[in-house]
Amino acid sequence: MEGSMQRKNKELALLQKPMQPLVPGQGKCLASDRVIVDGCPVGFMYREPPLDAQDSGWRFLAGDEDADYMADLSRHGVYEVNMIANFDAAIIEHLQAPVGSRVLRDPSGALVPAMVPCAVATV
């Protein structure tokens, strides 16, 4: 994930509290600004084949990003998976899921494996 899409000077929602080593060594991921900047909980996460040795393959979205939002690469960034876990610890139990996994936030607020494959616009 060399040449990150991460835009400089993004105001990250988490900066108000110290980062904890919840899942160190998990590698990097892509996350939308809805999660990392706006502080929304992860509503949809999916795992693709990694792009390189640093990439975990995980992609994290709030779940309300439309096609126009997804097409704007400035609205996504490359981050450590540990950072996303600090934003939303509910992702942790799903991080060992294999490539191809999809996880959705259900109406009760829990993250659960998606039973049906979902079409996803990748960044």
Would you mind describing this structure in some detail?
- This protein has three helices and six strands, in the order βαββαβαββ.
- With 123 residues, it is α+β, with helices and mostly antiparallel strands.
- The chain has one domain.
- Strand 2 and strand 3 (55-61) form a beta hairpin.
- It starts with 27 loop residues before the first strand and ends in a 10-residue tail after the last strand.
Which features does this protein show?
single chain, 123 residues, alpha+beta, 6-stranded mixed β-sheet, 6 strands, 13% helix, disordered N terminus
Short description:
Helices cover 13% and strands 23% of the residues. The protein is α+β, with helices and mostly antiparallel strands.
